[in-house]
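Predict fold of Unsaturated chondroitin disaccharide hydrolase; 410 aa.
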Amino acid sequence: MRLVNLLTVLLLAIIFLSCSKKKTDTGLDFNNELSYCSNQINRTLSEISGKNMMPRNILANETSWNLRPIEISEWTVGFWPGILWYNYENTKNTNDADVATYYTDLLEPLIKLPAYDHDLGFQIFCSYGNAYRLTGNEKYKQIILNAADTLATLFNPKVGTILSWPREVDNGRFAPHNTIMDNMINLEMLYWAAKNGGDKKLYDIATKHAETTMKYHFREDGGNYHVAVYDTITGDFIKGVTHQGYADSTLWARGQAWAIYGYAMVYRETQDKKFLRFAEKVTDLYLSRLPKDEFVPYWDFDAPNIPNEPRDASVAAIVASGLLELSQLEDDSQKAKEYKDAAVNMLIELSSDKFQSRESKPSFLLHSVGHWPNKSEVDAAINYADYYYIEALIRYKKVMNGISVIENFK
Ligand code: GLY
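Predicted 3D structure, encoded as tokens:
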């Protein structure tokens, strides 16, 4: 009798262990990594408390955050509130919601201003977008709707894209109209607004921007130029150049990451297969150019001193998050698996001691590159790397629980 009981207990233990192992898939324990993020967030909160500014970066030789004031010209101010909302989504702890609310509300002055540039999408949708998704607070909804209308004022119908940087027209560098690849991400706020009581034209603007960008902003192989310059009289594409990459002809890694994430999202919103095929094209080029058995790229795939060039962890985080969505949208099961496996490998590598900051700094990740040509934020911890890392972990948790990565996103 005793032996039978022992065998039953053993059998139950084996079943339990195999089920819980399934939840973590190929060695990535999302619960563990998400609690690591929570701990780092608490360290950051103690460090920055009372300053009413947002953590932006920790440079290679530093151990504490450099903070930025809430200004329309500071493109990354929405990431810290967004990180806090993802943390709350995981912990469901009301204190975590309170602190996320506090930092989100600090951004309110931004939406009373005319459009400074396309980054309004990053600023408002990463913060208020997540805030509304998780709380349903109508005040947040109205703020996003207003911001979407403001962003749309930068759309040029002759060209068919949003003007990303008005200041670069004023100074004559990327005149008379410029669009940068990063701008793809800001279309999400326009799609959202069109579905949530905003002007339906916002959908058309976002889709036209994605179509024009797809037509002109890439080389034959699917590699992006960072910046596309257009003529405002004829609407013609004038040239593709770089701003943050090594050279006009090279593949700036984060530009390609924005394209992967952006076209997956545009396909989700439009259900137009041409965008799915294009998301595959930009992804397949990216994956084919990764170093063998490595998942965090160098900052530019064509930088001249590879392998002695800095890596860019932010790129791997953005791509991992984008690919988790793309794998769920795929109509080709083999590609779905390939993209999911690649995303998991990226997250495993980012979660290693090589890329996590751990005790050394209160960020989640080390080793991102902000702007190599300006020699700024080279090999730094940067807030957007952390934002897309925690987003990807939350998405991965949803994938493993069999739910959509954009659950709750209406
Ligand atoms: N959006 C600016 C960057 O990716 O650095």
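The pocket of glycine is lined by residues 75, 182, 244, 254, 370 (CB under 6 Å).
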